[in-house]
Amino acid sequence: MATAMTEGPSDPYSLLGIAPQSSFEDVQAARQAKLEAVGDDPLARSRVETAYDAVLMDRLKERQQGRVSSAARSASQKETLPVPRPPLAQLPNLPSLPLPRLGGGSSAAGRPSLSLATGRERLFPLISHGILLVTALAFPATAPDALLALATLTTLVNLQRRTGRFWRSVGFTLLLLALGLALSQVLVAALPAAFPQSLPIQPYQAQATIGILLLLAGALFIG
Fold it and tell me: How many secondary structure helices (H) and strands (E) does the chain include?
């Protein structure tokens, strides 16, 4: 790898005390050390400068001829190594949000749950249905159909509050009303013919009472 300038006593590498494969930093350091060593001797300083220029010219020729020293080759390999990228800052974990349930808060798979209502959902049907029961028993002249209609509406409102599903609330309310009417018909038919004399209420009052009680139970326990 050395050229003709690297042979003989006038070898600039030997004069500077470096090897042909020395890096550019080593060449500069050697030049500075030699200049400090020879002091103010102009001839010696001239030789050091000449040797330094010769080394630079030798390196330039090597590059022009496609010859690269081991130092230059290692430097080139370092340049081709991938530059490590700084790690990206980790994003903070987002809090998980509960997914809204369509159709309101009821039990899974559309099945109703039986649980006693609390708070306003318990107080509202107790008061409203209680008033209707007192009216049906204390005031025989009141139309039972009107009392059942009010009880049905009250139950529907309370089920809508509890389940959040209007059409399902309508279905349960109508089912409760139908069961109440059917049950009252069976009970009244099973009583003796002297119904008005044996009980202090009329048959239509008993039918309204049974229907209101069944609607009240549904309003309190269907959720």
Answer: 9, 0
